[in-house]
Amino acid sequence: MFNSFTFKIARRYFFARSSKTIVNRINRFAFIMIVVSSSALLVVLSAFSGLKDFGLMYTNSFDPDFKVIPKVGKYFVLDSSVVEKISSLTGTSNSSLILEEKVLLDNSLNSASILLKGVDSNHFLNQKLNDLSLVGVYDIRDKNSIYLGASIASDLDVVLSEDFSVKATVPSLRSFSLFNPTPFSSLFFEIQGIFQISGDIESKYAFTSLPSLSSLLALPPNRFSAIEILVGEGFSKDAVQSDLDQLLPVAFNIVSKQELNPALYKMLNTENLAVYLIFCLVVIIAVFNLVGSITIMMVEKASDLKILTALGADKKSFGNIFLSLGAIVSFLGSLVGCLLGSVFVVIQSSNPFVYVPGTNLPYPVILSFQNLVIVFLTVSLIGFAASFWTTRNLDKRFLD
Fold first, then answer.
1. Do 189 and 209 touch, CB atoms closer than 8 A?
2. Are strands 223-224 and 145-149 parallel, antiparallel or unpaired?
3. Residue 135 belongs to what domain range?
């Protein structure tokens, strides 16, 4: 399709200056538009990656890398030696047993439904919850005490005092009988403290000790809802599955961090795709300048091509000259645009100058190799496709 003859002429047309100033300006403007559109696309994708990472920061800090849940039933029956073996696995940095149950919290004023999480002394969130404390101190050793999110505490009109407590109520696991006349189990919890991180987490979770929740649910101490595991870099789900198959005596499922919040990740990926498609439209509009530039070049160089025809050149190869010209403009423009966009992103990440409106928070950006490749290929391919469409049947339109 391309050969040294057509490419050399296209390169000369790109770098040489036409005797007509308007042609030079149009060519220069087409190249600048390709550069601007590619750099804008890279900056927007980098900004969205930064916002995505910033938004997931709180969720990721609360979720384990992997959560092991029973395949059948709600609870595991395990002893502490199993957890010790899991913690000793290569690549595992932390593992702990938990209980989770949907409970109704109420006091004399209000009520709210939350997911109460009973954790052991080895849980990875213990120190983080203390660091996030708005009021009070989180201590896993306190029995029948609860650690609430700020949103739930506000809904319940919580007051931190020895006289203030909340009642947690769950459906009873015991059979309904004359000796157990109520279908619910209840337990009063003292408010240990209030943590603050993000509205979604604050309104969803509350924390207590593992024995306290076991007491509320009337479960023996060897029953657990799940095992939460933190692993090192590069430790895959398949590797965890293979190791746990040899340790756990019952069937289980492993849920990754992304699978714990499928709606959140789906929403973020959809938004990312929408932003990409919108700016692809911007690139397509910018490429119209390239179409105009190539068309004007074909009109201006028609006399030169007729001379080449007289010298024996094949008319069918002339389309490749301007197709090569469009490819050069697209590839170089996208390359320069990626370079300029990268400089902007690096400066913003190291010495921020763009801030979130109304705050002192620098706008988060992340420069990734994936985004660089996406931008370069998108702009180059759109420009090449536009050039191909413009130069089709050149010999019939300009040389007859």
1. no
2. unpaired
3. 64-257
